[in-house]
């Protein structure tokens, strides 16, 4: 449904470049659920190992999961180019390793190889599309439609698996899905069980596999 929005080939090319650039950075390691505090605008974070989550937390403690970052993906590029305080929270979803690339190193790389601006533009555009789809889904869909739309989007952003199954490559807890969708954990559990009973999805080794895309799409009031 969203495969044209999240082309895997471009994403892989971007990841390869940033993993190469990570060798110029300061390597730091983090444990699961540890918050990563980075000085805005002075560094760009490159994920080297593991998975990071990018979230927004309200003053009342409510959490909104925006997206996750995998090896070769970056964080902090918006503050680097546009300035301003970064309002999102970066957290290790699992044991992870990052590279902090300093501003002066990035300035030199961009001056010598201006064509790599396209990788930064790709990263920002991808994140914009993810957040835009979350916003439109929240407006257009009921709870089950929002959950169906989220599963389709997460699958489109996932790496293809060897079995050619349409699946979500990153493992999410029901609470993490609830934080992403904007509903309760109980609602997530109820809707996932419904999708399983209808033969739309299956869950293997904590990974969601979409067995009937058309039927899952039928729950979604999608963008035309």
TrEMBL record:
<dbReference type="GO" id="GO:0003700">
    <property type="term" value="F:DNA-binding transcription factor activity"/>
</dbReference>
<dbReference type="InterPro" id="IPR036388">
    <property type="entry name" value="WH-like_DNA-bd_sf"/>
</dbReference>
<keyword id="KW-0418">Kinase</keyword>
<dbReference type="InterPro" id="IPR000595">
    <property type="entry name" value="cNMP-bd_dom"/>
</dbReference>
<dbReference type="InterPro" id="IPR014710">
    <property type="entry name" value="RmlC-like_jellyroll"/>
</dbReference>
<protein>
    <submittedName>
        <fullName>cAMP-binding domain of CRP or a regulatory subunit of cAMP-dependent protein kinases</fullName>
    </submittedName>
</protein>
<keyword id="KW-0804">Transcription</keyword>
<feature type="domain" description="Cyclic nucleotide-binding">
    <location>
        <begin position="39"/>
        <end position="127"/>
    </location>
</feature>
<feature type="domain" description="HTH crp-type">
    <location>
        <begin position="141"/>
        <end position="214"/>
    </location>
</feature>
<dbReference type="Pfam" id="PF00027">
    <property type="entry name" value="cNMP_binding"/>
</dbReference>
<dbReference type="GO" id="GO:0016301">
    <property type="term" value="F:kinase activity"/>
</dbReference>
<keyword id="KW-0805">Transcription regulation</keyword>
<dbReference type="InterPro" id="IPR050397">
    <property type="entry name" value="Env_Response_Regulators"/>
</dbReference>
<dbReference type="Pfam" id="PF13545">
    <property type="entry name" value="HTH_Crp_2"/>
</dbReference>
<keyword id="KW-0238">DNA-binding</keyword>
<dbReference type="GO" id="GO:0003677">
    <property type="term" value="F:DNA binding"/>
</dbReference>
<dbReference type="GO" id="GO:0005829">
    <property type="term" value="C:cytosol"/>
</dbReference>
<dbReference type="InterPro" id="IPR012318">
    <property type="entry name" value="HTH_CRP"/>
</dbReference>
<keyword id="KW-0808">Transferase</keyword>
<dbReference type="InterPro" id="IPR036390">
    <property type="entry name" value="WH_DNA-bd_sf"/>
</dbReference>
<dbReference type="InterPro" id="IPR018490">
    <property type="entry name" value="cNMP-bd_dom_sf"/>
</dbReference>
């Amino acid at each position: 449904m969203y495969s044209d929005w999240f082309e895997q080939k471009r994403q892989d090319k971007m990841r390869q470049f940033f993993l190469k650039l990570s060798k110029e950075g300061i390597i730091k390691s983090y444990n699961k659920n540890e918050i990563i505090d980075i000085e805005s605008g002075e560094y760009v974070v490159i994920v080297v190992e593991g998975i990071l989550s990018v979230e927004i937390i309200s003053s009342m403690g409510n959490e909104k999961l925006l997206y996750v970052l995998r090896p070769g993906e970056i964080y902090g590029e918006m503050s680097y180019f546009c300035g301003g305080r970064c309002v999102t929270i970066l957290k290790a979803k699992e044991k992870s390793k990052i590279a902090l690339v300093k501003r002066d190193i990035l300035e030199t790389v961009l001056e010598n190889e201006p064509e790599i601006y396209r990788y930064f533009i790709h990263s920002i555009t991808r994140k914009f599309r993810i957040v835009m789809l979350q916003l439109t889904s929240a407006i257009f869909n009921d709870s089950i439609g929002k959950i169906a739309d989220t599963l389709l989007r997460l699958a489109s952003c996932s790496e293809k698996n060897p079995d050619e199954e349409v699946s979500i490559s990153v493992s999410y807890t029901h609470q993490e899905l609830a934080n992403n969708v904007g509903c309760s954990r109980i609602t997530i559990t109820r809707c996932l069980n419904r999708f399983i009973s209808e033969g739309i999805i299956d869950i293997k080794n904590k990974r969601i596999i979409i067995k009937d895309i058309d039927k899952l799409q039928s729950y979604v009031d999608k963008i035309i």
